[in-house]
Design the sequence.
């Protein structure tokens, strides 16, 4: 299937554009048609994804596949259209497609005010283009284009369909992330000029070792800013709670499930492989900020009165575990990070779905007013409990494999990194698991246990229904399956991760 | 069956799923499935036990270090599954509680037949242990079976079962008690608001415990450990409508999770220290042979001890267990007496090589394990005296007895500790179920207010409860005597005199508070309401069975018989060189005396009203001491109010304040400054300066024009005059400068 090999990734990225174009011609009033077109588009994209999964050569997961070679794109700056995936990007690409479908399904009869499904779904498709593109791009400018592309639809999603404070939240999100990206593009340009006038990522991985150490440090700093804000890492995280709280449910889900992963992916794909020496110098700082984020995020959660904001802070904490895994620069650590990305995407995505459903039924997200969900909507309560347990890293569910290997890897970080420091990080991260149990179960107690408050006691709260089951069942199933059979993911990522860390065994020395 | 031991945890997992999906539709609301499957697991466990006992004891354990060769060879014998599905013996609660989401249906079981770790034979045949200070008796070879679970960083992580005497003993005990609790609950939990869920959770819990005790590696052990934590949370909070029940559930989960920090850290340290493996046998061997550096070993053992303190409710993390009595009594009997709480004891026993080496348990004196156990014995026993709730008495008693088990392991009396775990499961389970029987009848747990005189109205319950209490008090020839005595013998023989004394004092206290408990409940006048009567067979049946075990189980390790030792002592224990001591009649006599004196003292004080009654009213120190006990040493104030309350209150709010005002302050400040600069740039620079210049140029031109316009009068004479004037000026200039 040579044709497929060359075109699969381009198709996966740009197929949603076809949907956008079609939607542009559909009249605004024909809502069913709009939703159907969007669903078909996302399903078609996912079909390409399935094809990619099937044709992926699992024998060489470390190598770039579906790579038709660089094609001329912007000759003037020597930027090429170069796409390819390996064992690390594959799960993330699939996650992105998967979440997109589920969001469309969930939205079927859950449109936030001020309605207008046409615009909303078109923006969703633009988001998908950006997300898929980021994960397949192998050229820095191409990566940058897709990385930035997701900002605009998200801005509008929050700004138009969001909650009461949406103007502030959307602008904050947009400008803050853009600021980081500005520094990031400076880094990219510096790489271009210092490593042989190329933006091609595989080439840079080979050549950038020649850049003098100090320059590497600065370049890494620029990249760090761009990615760290996106992750988000402490102390650049403050856009996240506002964005998540104000965004409509589907927006929060996409934001949590995929957009945050663009930052961590950037670290693994670009910053670390291209600049391994700088990575070793920066790793302790990254690790430190990561564990601060774990504890800080947890404490922030405990202070929240709004359920969605609580879940938003929990994202900061979870991404702390992911970044700790990355900071150790080891196989276990980065494997944990990729697993954690996928797991967090599924679990926190589910949590936001549930929060959105609760808000829809009760009209509020205030923990003080909620209670007794298990009495009035038991299935929803069970699902919330399941997700809470998954989020706190219970073994047997996906979240565990994002947390425990990260803690494990911190005991023996890559050569060149300080063992005592990382072991200290390890203990702090382990303490973080207790905090995670704290805020999640306390939230659960206030929401699901007990009896309904007077305000809602007489209301009829309907339990989980059709589109919700349809959208959620795959995620719930995956959370469980990945939890007991992590090989599904580790088997795909391991080789590719080893390729990345091989650089450290060489650089750090025995 | 030993090779297929994975079925034993698998059955309850399947049971959990089936009950959750189909339980409500069945006539028995799901308890049929639970009893059937757990009963099945019990049958399989019994088969395992029989098979284990009839195994030939022909494996001579090589000295530590040489076991590496046998372990390495044995590893090679474990056939590995490369691409096939992993064991389906873990499951979690499924949220898709209705329409067919059978995600937890176990995946295809590995067909591979791993061999028993029999290659040890190749090494040990004819090989004498080089450290020959003690005679090494041959033991039964354990049976291992593993599959590959996943790979990471090139390291293969396996999942599998490791069946030796310890695991066989535990699966037997766990499935037996679980089965009896299931039967008990059919009556006790009748008409409960969530009957089906209760049985589902019981099944899942049983599965978790079984996963833990059969696991061959620390990662899988962690899975079982946490599964049990989840089920404990679900079951303690079974009646979650009332806040104090959900509070108790959260408290249990948080406290054990705090200890679990140590478990995560300890497992991580051991993984790397033992050469990137989670395999327990390898870890033990590496520890004993000195291949693991002492610093790492000590750190790991200390960390694991934290986990034990949390899960097995040792001081100072014991505070969750009495609160956990908020859950239904069958739960207390199963989880908080016989099974889950002994998980910590099991952890030490299983990884004994690590603890033995790290704390030099063979050396005598004092070590952290024994100290923790010893302190717990006394502290908890003291608290049992001031409880009026019968379940709380039993809860503190459990904490105290767990202290005995931990102390036993700490003084090098491995078999004694495990044996006490064995006997305690029976009589403590019995006591809890007995308390349940009483409360079923009088609808209360308060001994002082609602009980009394029940020995006539509830004869079976009374007699079995009495048997359990006497067994707990350590009076021969009941079970508790034999296990407790072995602990004392170990303490004295291994050079731990302090803990011998603690053990004896504890025995006295145990007998005394149990006498109080029995007296208040069964003797005197009935103080409650209604007409109590004996409970039905579903409740008294299990009581009688457990009473039987409480009487006879002790003989299993009586001097001369010592079958229990022979069956359970495993590779690690032998390789470590754990010593055996002879039964000592004087010590047995002193121990029994302590128990008898305790009963006598208790009877004298509570039944006959002798002794210093009303002391607390006469003596200030006594009152203070009593209040101190009543308030549980103020630990709950410290933990719940100060630590937890502090963190989730002021500390969290302060952090959030920093987030909103400092970090966001910088952000918003930057934005405000930017806007101010922008406004300045626009208002002042752009509008006033730049535009000012632009407009100024325009105005200037206009003004200039206006001025010059004055000259434009239209009068020719004026123009001629100007012309003439200009010519004069120019002529003058020419004349002057030419």
Sequence:
């Amino acid at each position: 299937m040579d044709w497929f090999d060359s075109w699969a990734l381009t198709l996966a990225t740009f197929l949603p554009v076809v949907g956008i174009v079609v939607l542009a011609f559909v009249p605004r009033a024909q809502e069913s048609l709009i939703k159907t077109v969007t669903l078909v588009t996302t399903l078609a994209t996912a079909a390409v994804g399935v094809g990619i999964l099937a044709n992926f050569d699992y024998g060489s997961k470390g190598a770039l596949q579906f790579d038709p070679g660089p094609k001329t794109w912007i000759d003037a700056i020597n930027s090429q259209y170069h796409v390819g995936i390996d064992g690390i990007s594959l799960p993330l690409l699939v996650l992105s497609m998967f979440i997109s479908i589920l969001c469309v399904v969930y939205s079927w009869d859950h449109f936030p005010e001020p309605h207008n499904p046409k615009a909303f779904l078109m923006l969703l498709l633009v988001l998908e283009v950006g997300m898929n593109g980021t994960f397949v791009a192998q050229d820095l400018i191409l990566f940058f284009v897709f990385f930035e592309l997701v900002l605009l639809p998200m801005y509008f999603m929050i700004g138009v369909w969001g909650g009461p404070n949406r103007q502030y939240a959307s602008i904050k999100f947009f400008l803050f992330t853009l600021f980081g990206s500005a520094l990031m593009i400076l880094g990219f340009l510096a790489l271009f000029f210092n490593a042989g006038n190329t933006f091609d990522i595989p080439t840079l991985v080979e050549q950038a070792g020649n850049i003098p150490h100090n320059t590497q440090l600065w370049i890494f700093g620029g990249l760090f800013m761009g990615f760290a804000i996106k992750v988000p890492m402490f102390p650049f995280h403050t856009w996240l709670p506002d964005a998540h709280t104000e965004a409509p449910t589907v927006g929060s889900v996409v934001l949590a499930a995929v957009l945050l992963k663009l930052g961590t992916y950037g670290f693994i794909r670009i910053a670390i492989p291209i600049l391994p020496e700088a990575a070793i110098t920066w790793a302790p700082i990254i690790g430190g900020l990561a564990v601060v984020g774990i504890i800080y995020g947890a404490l922030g959660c405990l202070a929240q009165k709004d359920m969605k904001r609580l879940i938003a802070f929990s994202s900061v904490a979870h991404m702390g575990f992911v970044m700790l895994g990355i900071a150790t620069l080891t196989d276990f650590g980065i494997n944990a990070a990729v697993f954690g990305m996928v797991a967090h995407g599924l679990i926190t995505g589910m949590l936001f779905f549930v929060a959105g459903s609760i808000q829809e039924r009760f009209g509020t997200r205030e923990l003080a007013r909620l209670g007794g969900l298990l009495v009035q909507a038991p299935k929803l309560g069970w699902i919330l409990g399941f997700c809470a347990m998954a989020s706190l890293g219970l073994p047997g569910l996906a979240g565990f494999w994002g947390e425990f290997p990260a803690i494990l890897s911190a005991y023996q970080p890559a050569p060149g990194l300080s063992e005592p420091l990382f072991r200290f990080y390890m203990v702090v991260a382990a303490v973080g698991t207790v905090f995670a149990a704290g805020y999640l179960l306390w939230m659960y107690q206030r929401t699901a246990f007990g009896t309904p408050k007077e305000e809602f006691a007489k209301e009829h709260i309907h339990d989980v229904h059709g589109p919700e089951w349809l959208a959620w069942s795959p995620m719930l199933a995956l959370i469980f399956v990945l939890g007991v059979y992590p090989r599904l993911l580790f088997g795909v990522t391991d080789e590719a991760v080893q390729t990345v860390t091989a650089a450290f065994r060489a650089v750090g020395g025995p | 069956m030993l090779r297929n031991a994975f079925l034993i945890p698998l059955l309850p997992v399947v049971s959990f799923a089936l009950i959750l999906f189909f339980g409500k539709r069945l006539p028995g609301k799901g308890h049929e499935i639970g009893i059937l499957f757990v009963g099945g697991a019990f049958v399989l466990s019994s088969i395992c036990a029989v098979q284990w006992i009839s195994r030939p004891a022909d494996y001579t354990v090589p000295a530590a270090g040489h076991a590496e060769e046998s372990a390495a060879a044995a590893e090679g014998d474990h056939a590995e599954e490369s691409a096939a599905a992993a064991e389906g013996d873990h499951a979690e609660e499924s949220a898709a509680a209705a329409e067919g989401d059978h995600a937890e249906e176990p995946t295809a079981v590995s067909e591979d037949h791993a061999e028993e770790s029999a290659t040890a034979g190749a090494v040990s045949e004819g090989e004498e242990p080089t450290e020959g200070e003690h005679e090494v008796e041959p033991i039964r070879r354990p049976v291992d079976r593993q599959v590959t679970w996943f790979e990471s960083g090139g390291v293969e992580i396996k999942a599998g079962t490791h069946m030796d005497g310890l695991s066989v003993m535990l699966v037997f005990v766990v499935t037996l008690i679980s089965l009896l609790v299931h039967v008990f609950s059919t009556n006790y939990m009748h008409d409960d608001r969530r009957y089906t869920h209760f049985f589902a959770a019981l099944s899942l819990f049983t599965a978790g415990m079984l996963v833990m005790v059969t696991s061959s590696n620390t990662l899988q052990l962690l899975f079982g450990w946490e599964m049990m934590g989840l089920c404990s949370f679900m079951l303690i909070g079974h009646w979650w409508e009332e806040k104090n029940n959900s509070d108790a559930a959260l408290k249990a989960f948080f406290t054990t999770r705090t200890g679990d920090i140590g478990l995560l850290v300890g497992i991580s340290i051991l993984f790397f220290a033992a050469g990137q493996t989670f395999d327990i046998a390898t870890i033990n061997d590496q520890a004993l042979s000195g291949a693991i550096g002492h610093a790492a070993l000590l750190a790991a053992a200390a960390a694991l001890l934290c986990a034990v303190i949390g899960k097995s409710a040792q001081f100072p993390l014991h505070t969750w267990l009495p609160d956990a009595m908020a859950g239904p009594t069958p739960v207390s009997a199963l989880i908080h007496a016989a099974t889950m709480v002994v998980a910590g004891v099991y952890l030490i026993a299983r990884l004994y090589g690590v603890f033995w080496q790290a704390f030099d348990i063979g050396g005598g004196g004092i070590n952290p394990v024994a100290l923790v156990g010893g302190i717990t014995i006394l502290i908890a026993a003291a608290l049992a005296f001031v409880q009026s709730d019968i379940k709380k008495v039993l809860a503190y008693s459990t904490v105290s007895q767990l202290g005995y088990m931990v102390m036993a392991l700490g003084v090098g009396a491995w078999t004694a500790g495990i044996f006490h775990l064995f006997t305690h499961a029976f009589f403590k389970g019995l006591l809890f179920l007995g308390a349940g029987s009483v409360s079923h009848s009088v609808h209360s747990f308060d001994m002082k207010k609602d009980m009394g005189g029940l020995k006539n109205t509830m004869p079976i319950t009374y007699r079995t409860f009495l048997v359990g209490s006497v067994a707990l008090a350590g009076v021969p020839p009941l079970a508790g005597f034999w296990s407790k005595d072995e602990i004392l013998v170990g303490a004295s023989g291994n050079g731990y005199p302090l803990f011998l004394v603690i053990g004896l004092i504890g025995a006295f206290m145990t007998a005394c508070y149990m006498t109080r408990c029995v007296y208040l409940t069964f003797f005197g006048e009935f103080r409650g309401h209604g007409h109590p009567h004996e409970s039905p067979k579903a409740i008294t049946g299990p009581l009688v069975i457990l009473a039987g075990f409480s009487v006879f189980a002790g003989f299993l390790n009586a001097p001369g018989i010592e079958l229990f030792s022979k069956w359970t002592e495993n590779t690690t224990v032998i390789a470590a060189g754990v010593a055996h001591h002879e039964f000592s009649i004087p010590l047995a006599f002193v121990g029994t005396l302590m128990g008898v004196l305790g009963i006598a003292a208790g009877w004298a004080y509570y039944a006959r009203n002798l002794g210093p009654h009303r002391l607390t009213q006469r003596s200030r120190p006594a009152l203070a001491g009593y209040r101190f006990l009543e308030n549980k040493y103020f630990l709950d104030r410290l933990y719940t109010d100060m630590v937890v309350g502090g963190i989730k209150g002021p500390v969290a709010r302060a952090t959030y304040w920093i987030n909103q005002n400092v970090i966001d302050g910088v952000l918003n400040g930057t934005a405000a400054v930017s806007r101010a600069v922008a406004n300045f740039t626009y208002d002042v620079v752009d509008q006033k300066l730049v535009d000012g210049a632009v407009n100024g140029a325009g105005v200037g031109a206009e003004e200039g024009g206006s001025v010059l316009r004055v000259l434009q009068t239209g009068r020719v004479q004026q123009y001629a005059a100007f012309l003439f004037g200009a010519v004069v000026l120019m002529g003058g200039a020419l004349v002057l400068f030419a």
The longest helix of chain B spans residues 635-711. Chain B touches chain A through 62 residues (CB under 8 Å). The radius of gyration of chain B is 38 Å. Confidence is low (pLDDT under 50) at residues 67-134 of chain B.
